[in-house]
Amino acid sequence: MIMRALIVSLLSVGAVAIPTAAFAEEPIQPITAAKPKNEKMVELGKMLFFDPRLSKSGFISCNSCHNLSMGGTDNLQTSIGHNWHQGPINAPTVLNSSMNLAQFWDGRAKDLKEQAGGPIANPGEMGFTHELAVGVLQSMPEYRTRFKQLFNKDKIDIGMVTDAIAAFEETLVTPDSRFDKWLKGDKQAINQTELDGYKLFKESGCTSCHNGAAVGGGSFQKFGIHEPYKTTNKAEGRFAVTGKDADRFMFKVPTLRNVELTYPYFHDGAAATLEEAVDTMGRLQLGRKFTKDENAKIVAFLKTLTGKQPEITLPILPPSVKDTPKPKPFG
Ligand code: HEC
Ligand code: HEC
Fold it and tell me: Which phi and psi angles does 263 have, rounded to 5°?
C-alpha cells in the first residue's frame, strides 16, 4: 500500500519516469501472487484435489489429469479417464484458471466452483456420482471434522467439496515469470531475441486475443479465421453451449502462461510443439506465414511466460475406515 501511494503521488506530480507504471501501456500485465482468504479451506481443497477416492476407481484424482508437477496438465493429447476411457479433448491447465472468464474450452461452467463438480460425475473422467463421493468423505472422521470446522455442518455436501477445491485452485497462480520481471522494469530479465519475439507477438496481432494477466482466458474466439482448422475432433466449441450458429468453433482463448509446460496444444492436442502451434496461429488466425526466424523469436518469448510454480507440500490424506465404500477400479 505504501509503495502504491508513493507511486501515485510521484506520478501525480510527474516527477520521474517510474518503471513499475510501464506495463500500464502493455497488453499483458504481470500476475499478482495469490493471497489465500482462508488457509484451512485451501488446505482441505488441496486434500480433495489429490484424493483419488473421489473417483469410482479410487485411482484417479484431479491431479492425475492436472498434474501440478507438469504445469497443471497431463501432457497427453486427450486425457485418460475411468476404465482407460480415451477423453474427447485436451486437458487445459489448472494454473491461473481462476483468471478465466469461464471454465472449459467451451466455457460451459461459469467458475471454478461450478467446474469442480463436473469431473467427479463424468463417466469418462472420475466415473463416480456426487452422492457416492460425498459418502466416501463422510465416512472418514478427519474429513468430517475438517468440513465441520469450516462449514459448521455435520453432513458434508457437494457444494462444500467444490467450494474447498475452488479455494485451493485460486492459489494456483504463477507470478514472477521472467516476462513479468521485465514488465515491472527489470530490462535484463529477458534477452534481445525474447524481446524481438514479444514485439512480433504484439505487432502481428496475437495480443488481440491473448492479452491481460493470463495472456488469454478473457474471450471466446473463432479458431480458423483466415483458413479453417482441420481436425477429426468432434468438439464444436461455444456452439455446444449456446446452440447459435455464429458460435460454431468459437473456443475460449487459452492462457499462454506456462505454455512451455502445457504441451500438446489446441483443444484436440494436435500440435506437439510450440513451433507448430505458433505457425498454425499465424496462418489461421492472422493470415500470416512467419519465417523460421520469426517463429523462433515468438517461441523464445512464449517461454519467458513460465512463472514460479506453486510450491505444494503433498497432503497426507486420512486413511479409509471399515465403512468407507470400497473402490471399484474395474468395470
Ligand atoms: C480424466 C482427466 C481429468 C480429471 C480426473 C479431471 N479433469 Fe479437469 N479437465 C479435464 C479435461 C479434459 C478438461 C477440459 C474439458 C472441456 O473443456 O470440455 C478439464 C477442464 C478443467 C478445468 C477448466 C480449465 C479451463 O481453462 O477451462 C478445471 C479448472 C479443471 N478441469 C479442474 C479439475 C478438478 C478440480 C478436478 C477434480 C475434481 C478435475 N479437473 C479432474 C480432465 C480432467
Ligand atoms: C483471433 C484470436 C486469436 C489470435 C489473433 C491468436 N490466437 Fe492463439 N489461440 C486462440 C484460440 C481460440 C486458441 C484455442 C484454439 C483451440 O484449440 O481450439 C488459441 C491457441 C493458441 C495456442 C495453444 C495454447 C494451448 O494451450 O493449447 C498458442 C500457443 C497460441 N494460441 C499462440 C498464439 C500466437 C503466437 C498468436 C499470434 C501469432 C496467436 N495465438 C493469435 C485465439 C487467437
Answer: -60, 160
